[in-house]
Amino acid sequence: MNRQENLDQLQDKIKIWDIAVIGGGSSGLGVALDAISRGLSVVLFDKADFAKGTSSRSTKLLHGGVRYLAQGDVGLVFEALKERGKLLKNAPHLAHDQPFIIPIFTWKDRLMYSVGLKMYDWMAGRLSLGKSEFISKEETLKRIPGLKSKGLYGGVVYHDGQFDDARLALNLAQSADEAGTCVLNYVSVNSLVKDEAGKITGLHVSDKLSKKKYKINAKMVVNATGVFADKILQMDDPTAPRMIQPSQGIHLVLDLDFLGGKDALMIPKTRDGRVLFAVPWHGKLVVGTTDTLREKPKLEPEALQKEIDFVLETAAGYLARKPTREDVRSVFAGLRPLARPKEGSTKTKEISRSHKVILSESGLVTLTGGKWTTFRKMGEDTVEYFTKVTGEKLRDSKSLDMKIHGATSRVPEGHWGIYGFDAKPIQELTKENKSWEAKLHPDFPNIAAEVIWAVREEMAMTIEDVLARRIRMLFLDAQAAIDAAPTVAKLMAEEMKHDETWIASELADFNKTASKYLIKK
Length: 521
Description:
Residues 18-369 form the FAD dependent oxidoreductase domain. Keywords: FAD, Flavoprotein, Glycerol metabolism, Oxidoreductase. Its cofactor is FAD. GO terms for molecular function: glycerol-3-phosphate dehydrogenase (quinone) activity. By secondary structure, this protein is α+β, with helices and mostly antiparallel strands. The chain folds into 3 domains: 3-54 and 166-243 and 348-390, 3-Layer(bba) Sandwich (FAD/NAD(P)-binding domain); 95-162 and 245-339, D-Amino Acid Oxidase, subunit A, domain 2 (D-Amino Acid Oxidase, Chain A, domain 2, 2-Layer Sandwich); 417-517, Helicase, Ruva Protein, domain 3 (Orthogonal Bundle). It is 34% helix and 22% strand. Strands 3, 4, 5, 6, 11, 12, 13, 14, 15 and 16 form a 10-stranded mixed β-sheet that branches. Strands 1, 2, 7, 8, 9, 10, 17 and 18 form an 8-stranded mixed β-sheet that branches. Helix 2 packs across helix 10 (375-383). It is globular.
């Protein structure tokens, strides 16, 4: 992806794009992927970096949702299990099978979860990742040595998908770019363009880096901005009621030896009725999540102290070694764009995670709700509105079987796996410069060549783009990312021909952001 080449496409003042997408997270990229599978021309903008918001802050799971099954949302679970199975085939370098174990403490729980998960297996059909089964106490502790043994009766094993969310977003952007989509980060939408009848005909946007402004003509405009959807709806109609209720989820990252195995732990019912996961991810353990109502959406939300305490206390109830604040390598928060509940209702965990597509009188199409697992189906359902908006016939969707950039049957070993078929060309960059073989941090396998690749091929514009979303170091160990930042800044400055002033400014910005991922002892 070449940002300047894509910006140059915006100079064409006559061109009319079929679809202009606002938002470069899972929803917007899902729309772009489906639209290109039907041969439509697409331009996509994000005011920050791809997946900067909610889409890089998930629990890293591709799942049907055992909890949604318990709530009776069978349709969502069927849909999500189908999408989960397909994505593991379309992006095998980023998504894989992850065994989970639910610790069982009573015979009643054994019966309930065994029956429920057999139904989960059956619903996945031929796309099932493996059969669920009950295992003994001894086998449970063998597979999860870090689990408390007191009162343990056994465990129920089931299978779900796990993935790297920000890398998938990036690879989706690359897939779209390769198919002719104009994808751009750091471009904000200033206003909607309308004709005399009040119908939307395009957008006014500005490049946040060069400050240059552009007018975009489009047959259909899609608002896929997640928790910020209300801002675009009110840009369209200042009297539009608020539709989004942000709900915050946080995750704590610990060393993997707190769990001790390759299996993930799923606590189906915490003291306040929420689900808690402890999932191995990139050599660390991601523990979460919470469900806390927040009034205003933020691009960089921060974990509340009560949320940190809740996750630590709940995890301590199941782990043999009690995690403390000192053990937390990184803490990150994300905001779910839930449908605003009816008056008097505050139970966000009971709000369906199904997505909704809304067509405004102006022709603005808004995609709300949903979850990462169903991003492609969300995109397909949104693109279906193209005929309603334009009157033009639409080709059938082919996105269900589209291979994502990087997909390969031979996934590289170790940390190179997430790059898929790009791993080899990154490694070959070291022939250009031997010093690019150097590690960015002694505790991480990532090398300087990955920074060069992120700048040249992955549209990384800032230190944060590299250390948070191209290389996931900020999410895995915030202090390590802060330590590596000067090296990354120097590499980027040399590659992008920036001066010492840029380095100083970038480091200040990054350190300010990264400090929010450090837990206050």
